[in-house]
Every structure is written in C-alpha cells, then in structure tokens.
Amino acid sequence: MPRGRYSLHDPHDHTPLAEEHFHCAPGPSGWRYVSQLTAPSGDPAGSVDLALDDLGRPIRLELHASGWQVRGAALDGVTWVRTDPTGAHATEGNVRAHAFTGTSPAFLIATARLLRLTPDASATRVRLVAFTDPVLAPRTLDQSWALITRETHATDNGPLTVEEYQVTALDTGEQHAVHLSGDVILSAPGIELEDLESPPSVFA
C-alpha cells in the first residue's frame, strides 16, 4: 500500500499551495485513495477520499476544502452534492461526463485507470468535472489523453514500470506531461512526489 507525501504548487509561478499526505491501495472491488492536505502555514487544508471500481469509474468521492464539501459518484454520467461551510445549503449537479478531476494527484491516477491506454493507441478524449479550489466550484472540461511511452526500469525493489502521458486541454490546446508508476504520480504540473514509503501498486 503506497504511502507518502506530495507537494502541490501553482504550475505557473510555483507558489506553494499545500502538502498532501496520502495512502492508496487496490482492493477486491477496485482502488481507493485517501489523503489529508496541509497548507504552507501548517493548518489543515482539506481532504480527499476517492474510490474506483474495477473499471476505473468513481464509485465514491468525498472532498473537503475551506469548509466546503463535495460528495459524488458515477451515476447517469457523474452526480454530486456540494455543501457550503454553514451546512445550510446544498446544491446537486449532474453532467454527462466520464469522471471527476481536481488538484489532487488522485485524479490523474484515476483518469489513467479509467482510460487504460496503450502506447500504440490514438489519443482518447475524456470529459471531466473539475472541482476547483478554494471552494470546490464545479467546472466541466474536455481533455485528450495519449500514452506516449511505457518503460520498465530495474530498481532495488524490483522492476518499476513508468508511463508518460500527454494530456491536452481541448479548450486551450495547452499540453503537459504526466509521469505515472502504478498508483503513484512521479511528476506532473504542480505536483512533486516528495516522499514514498513503499513501492507503487502493480495493477493487473
């Protein structure tokens, strides 16, 4: 069960945003990722709890940030309920999308699991609902994902398979690379893996 720490920063000016302490693991019905976020000040900054089924679909999502809460799942596309910090108001949303996304590395792993791309396949378009900080506001976006390379490297703990994805924002054409091994992000815009206590999980 991988356990470790990511640092999150603004991908444009590199302003530190948070540290995300996580653990994740595949299970009999899919995969789960749980994390706690800490602001640069040291204060708690929220949490992520994401569970996928064995096809990579989000069967449960719970996000907390700045007092806001989102609970969601794949249902008629994706459906969610967003609650304000007072708990007095809740709004429900539904979009014909494939999955969720956001600032957490969990969402990049989840999208890769959902698409199950191969290096010789053409780029695949995916529609996602992003929950943007600091108030978890929902926004629908379209991306294109392509698996560029898949390479296996020898390590002290056995072979490590690293995948490089090219992700394109279809509204702006902006492209970036995501490097992934199992269920751990090695590097991506705004994300640095700072500490990893155990090797990434190997998916069948």
How would you explain this protein's 3D organization?
- With 204 residues, this protein is mainly beta.
- It is built from 1 helix and 15 strands, in the order βββββββββαββββββ.
- The protein has one helix spanning 105-115; strands spanning 3-9, 16-27, 30-38, 44-53, 58-65, 68-74, 78-83, 90-95, 99-101, 124-132, 137-155, 158-169, 175-181, 184-188, 191-196.
- It has a 15-stranded mixed sheet, covered by helices on one side.
- Strand 1 (3-9) and strand 2 (16-27) form a beta hairpin.
- The protein is globular, with a radius of gyration of 16 Å.
- The protein starts with a strand and ends in an 8-residue tail after the last strand.
- The model has no long low-confidence stretch (mean pLDDT 94).
- It comes from Streptomyces umbrinus.
- This is Glycolipid-binding domain-containing protein.
Poorly predicted spans: none
Q: Report the C-alpha radius of gyration, rounded.
A: 16 Å
Structural class: mainly beta
* Range of helix content: under 10%
Topology order in helix (H) and strand (E) letters? EEEEEEEEEHEEEEEE
Biggest pleated-sheet summary: 15 strands, mixed
Protein name: Glycolipid-binding domain-containing protein
